[in-house]
Amino acid sequence: LQEKGLDKQEIQNILIEDARTGLSVEALKRAISNNLFYVQGKFPEIATRNDYYMAVSYAVRDRILKRWVASVKQYLDGKHRVVSYLSAEYLLGPHLANNLINLGIYKETGQAVKELGKELEWLIDKEIEPGLGNGGLGRLAACYMDSLATLEVPAIGYGIRYQFGIFEQDIRDGWQVEDTDNWLRRGNPWEIERRELNYEVKFGGHVQHYTDNNGKFCSNWIPDLVVKGVAYDTPILGYDVNTTNTLRLWKSEAPKSFDFQLFNAGGYNDAVRQKIVCENISKVLYPNDEQEEGKILRLQQQYFFVSCSLQDMLGIHLRQGDKIQDFYKKFVVQLNDTHPAIGVAELMRLLLDKYQLEWEEAWDITTKTFAYTNHTLLPEALEKWDLELFGRVLPRHLELIYEINRRFMDKVTVKFYGDHHKIASLSLIGEGPKKYIKMANLASLGSFAINGVAALHTELLKKTVLKDWYELSPEKFSNKTNGVTPRRWMVLSNPELTALISDKIGEGWIKNLDELRGLEKFAQDQDFQKAWMDVKHQQKVSLSKKILQRLRLRVDADSLFDVHVKRMHEYKRQVLNALHVITLYNRIKHNPDIDMVPRTVIFAGKAAPGYKMAKQIIKLITSIGEIVNNDPDVRDRLKVVFYPNYNVTNAQKIYPAADLSEQISTAGKEASGTGNMKLSLNGALTIGTLDGANVEIRECVGEENFFLFGLNADEVEEVRVNGYDPYSYYNDNPDLKLALDQINDGYFSHLNTDTFKTLVRSLMFDDQYLVLADYQSYIDAQDKVAETFRDKSKWAEMSILNVARMGKFSSDRSIKDYCDEIWKVKPVPVKLKN
Ligand code: B1N
């Protein structure tokens, strides 16, 4: 450095900077040692695994912070347009390994840790993941945050810092039991608490109306509860770029002033109670996936985080000296389903009551700000709030929604004069024994764009739940097929396949997934096929070890790994898979020497705690497993695994080991699915229906590389219209009849005929999901799977082609489409000084 002509001070600065944020093994090693001492207050002899984890994480965080600060500076300087993603859920998964990959220092850190006498994997394996989401919707938000940063798009994710995320699932006596997810118990090195960044959020009370001195009509909301939201920021670093965006999660607290008032009035108990009420709001994630509960606390959660977020955005906007009227130019706000849809009314309230705008102007800004993504067609998932309850929690918003609706209904009544059905359907307020607020209608009316999450889903949206909205404003509608980040779902979780692919086609595919296409020409190459299947085998051996450890069950890594992992739900039809397992089992029992392709059928997934049927399905799977896995006749030909506590961490271990991906929902029910993409990207072949993104996956990989079965969405509708008769399928199909009789007669439940009574009754008499109708078609497809699997070279070729053609399903592609077609935002590259 002296030779380069730098003076002493300059050299000193560089050395300090390098010690703090250098990326070499030496710099990392020094940083980790320093953190162990100065942050954890430990020395190697007494440091625990968590001390090391913290020391490494803080070293990584320092390096991210440098990029974070540079990003924020850059965004503020240039007045760039920002994407604001509003989501009640973020299923991030473990941070450490992901950040190491995105920073490009996985190897260096591994070496540094090794030189300190420890193993990096030992630290990574034990990280507690933030499970702040239920399933696909929350995980999608996390993938999108990764892609936004990687594409260098200025973005903020807003959500709730739940103290308890999705419950931990344990299996006892074959049943699911839930345990609380205390994910913060060892501290969280990835977040920065920003106490100074806090907002007040009002609840309840009443609204006063008056006319001010200028004759303006004003409203004053007097709440009976005020809650404080405190920001917790997590940096989201892009891959191979400096861009580091912010995930800002709000924690609810009691405002200091508030409990003091009560305390002084002598109401100490009231003050304590208020404090608990306030803290309760961000206490726990609702564990329902696509099943609405209509609970007050849930509405409070939604309003809490949306209000904090909008106040925050308005503050950022105004601090830059810009006009309130230009808010929509600075921020575009994406609603992740209707959970944050109250934002439409809240922005109106802020613009009218706080910033004193006129109605027309406020509505114009609001409807240029929001865009809405719908994630489900299931009627039971559509959010409705009992009007009376809503008015008790948010009296001012109820008034605003009435006024929004009144003005809207005026227009609609003229436009669709006489069509009472259509007018009622478009109303924001539902009539019935009890009035209710329709959140999908509020979101649709308040947004300039509406999208579904797969081509089929968007088409069905336009024909069913949002039909009237489509006819009213077709220009608002578009499709944005979901995607997944190849960084976490390939580079991180499948380093062996990553190395094999990069060895052949370079590393460009990691940021440009279409480049995987380059693998096509090796699909028939014998050596490549062998290397490909060797990697798969290695992953299956690793998963087998985990299964042995966790479940004391030995599975054969040479068998076909048949993987069905997702939330437990009737529409996802885990039961159909279970019927196939029973059918295979019966074939063995009937013909003990039968030559069949050995299978390991792996299930995983959580059931909502109140969803009885889903829990019974778990019990069915574990019960079948108990019989099959312990029957000496079966030998090595069939095993059934229920892998407990499906989450991001476990998904990362399961996907790479899958041969077959089960995507067998009733056509028209799964909006998109994203597990289907991750499994195919990791080389699994899909057995699936024409549902959600399966349709597009099949188009991309080629129909000859996809095991299709079952009714399509139109046929499902047709069967329903003509009257579905499950009994006829049962009666006409001896294999199906036997399987159902066995479940019913207690064959799998120690002769207890009560265990699966409701389940069997549902399948036989009122099954919405047409399980029996698709049974034979599914069995035939499974037989074809097994035949194909016997031909190892053919299977390898199909697997390679699946991966080679998955480029479309990168979340980078999804985000690019959102940016170009909805958000109108451009990348802002971030440069690092010195
Ligand atoms: O969103 C995913 C899709 O890939 C899945 O197909 C879809 O099922 C999932 C209420 C939901 N839709 N709706 C929810 C989650 C929580 C909740 O409280 C609804 N999840 C989906 C991503 O687009």
In round numbers, the mean pLDDT is 96
CATH class of the largest domain: Alpha Beta
User: What value does the Rg take, in angstroms?
Assistant: 28 Å
CATH fold description of the largest domain: Rossmann fold
Structural class: alpha/beta
How many strand segments?
A: 24
Strand content: 15-25%
Distance between the termini: 14 Å
CATH superfamily of the largest domain, by name, is: Glycogen Phosphorylase B
Parts with pLDDT < 50 across at least 5 consecutive residues: none
Overall geometric form: globular
Describe the main β-sheet briefly: 9 strands, mixed
Bound ligands, named by name, code or SMILES:
ligand B1N
- How are the strands of the biggest sheet laid out side by side? 7-10-11-4-1-12-13-17-18
CATH architecture of the largest domain, by name, is 3-Layer(aba) Sandwich
Count of DSSP H/I helices: 34
* Number of domain modules: 2
Helix proportion: 40-55%
Structural account:
The chain is of the alpha/beta class and 834 residues long. It is built from 34 helices and 24 strands. Strand 20, helix 24 and strand 21 form a beta-alpha-beta unit. The strands form 6 sheets. It has a 9-stranded mixed sheet. It folds into 2 domains: 79-94 and 129-163 and 175-235 and 242-482 and 819-823, Rossmann fold, CATH 3.40.50; 486-809, Glycogen Phosphorylase B (Rossmann fold, 3-Layer(aba) Sandwich). Helix 7 packs across helix 34 (811-823), helix 8 (256-264) packs antiparallel against helix 9 (268-280) and helix 12 (343-354) packs antiparallel against helix 13 (359-369). Bound molecules: ligand B1N.
